[in-house]
Write a structure and sequence with these properties.
Layout (H helix, E strand, L loop, with lengths): L4 H21 L8 E4 L7 H8 L4 E4 L2 H8 L6 E4 L8 H4 L5 E5 L2 H13 L4 E6 L16 H9 L4 E7 L9 H22 L5 E3 L6 H6 L4 E4 L1 H4 L4
Parallel strand pairs: 1-8, 2-3, 3-4, 4-5, 5-6, 6-7
């Protein structure tokens, strides 16, 4: 059941307080950390709530679900944060302002081709499996340099940074923190080596945002803390 907009606003206030506390603990400004409302599995009202609260973009996991909502919303940016199969790249290009889950050479090529045909530049993040979790997608750290080189060779793709999903270990926050730390270090190394500005580190969700903020996250992807749990 969809929560009311008043409940959403209350949840947003609590979430912002949590991020403020995490930033204060880590000597960071809360302005450095963007909230990305994750509206997957919720009706289009979740997007409208987010938009009226001042959010400029939301995150969706599935291309088809997002396309259905996009037809009912104007003036919103959309990030794809779920795994994208290369055969659906054509559907995603032009519909998502950023694709956060790029993790294969085949997908890179398909995204570039589709973007080129539409005369578009598609912003991407490279998903890295820093936790070496077999249940998660993403390239491994040791392949990242080569993958970045490949990415930079595509004229219709704009690399903005990296994304990761920490292994699920609710009783041991250090697992998430180590995963986030590894991505931060990797971003610093790649930025220096290739002389790149990579502004985005998309890492952290409802349960591990404190650890993500401590390790330099610029974007927390939040669904349940804003919209509650699906029945």
């Amino acid at each position: 059941m969809m929560i009311t907009e008043k409940e959403f606003q209350y949840n947003l206030t609590i979430l912002k307080n949590r991020i403020d506390e995490a930033c204060s603990f880590s000597n960071r400004s809360a302005e450095e950390v963007q909230i990305l409302p994750v509206t997957k599995n919720w009706p289009v009202q979740a997007v409208h709530y987010s938009q009226r609260a001042g959010f400029l973009r939301v995150g969706e996991n599935r291309v088809q679900e997002a396309l259905g909502k996009q037809s009912e919303v104007e003036g919103m940016e959309w990030d794809l944060i779920g795994h994208l199969q290369s055969n659906k790249a054509k559907l995603a290009v032009g519909k998502f302002s950023r694709i956060q889950t790029v993790d294969s050479n085949k997908l890179l090529g398909k995204l570039n081709d589709a973007s080129s045909k539409l005369d578009l530049k598609t912003s991407i993040l490279i998903q890295v499996n820093t936790g070496k979790d077999p249940a998660k997608n993403g390239i491994l750290e040791e392949h990242c340099k080569e993958f970045v080189e490949k990415t930079l060779g595509y004229s219709s793709l704009v690399l903005e940074g990296f994304m990761t999903i920490a292994p699920f270990a609710p009783d041991d926050p250090e697992v998430a923190r180590k995963s986030f730390s590894r991505l931060r270090v990797l971003k610093e190394q790649i930025s220096t080596q290739f002389n790149l500005s990579l502004p985005e580190l998309s890492m952290g969700m409802t349960g591990d945002l404190r650890e993500a903020v401590a390790e330099g996250s610029t974007m927390i992807r939040v669904g349940s803390a804003l919209f509650g749990q699906r029945e």
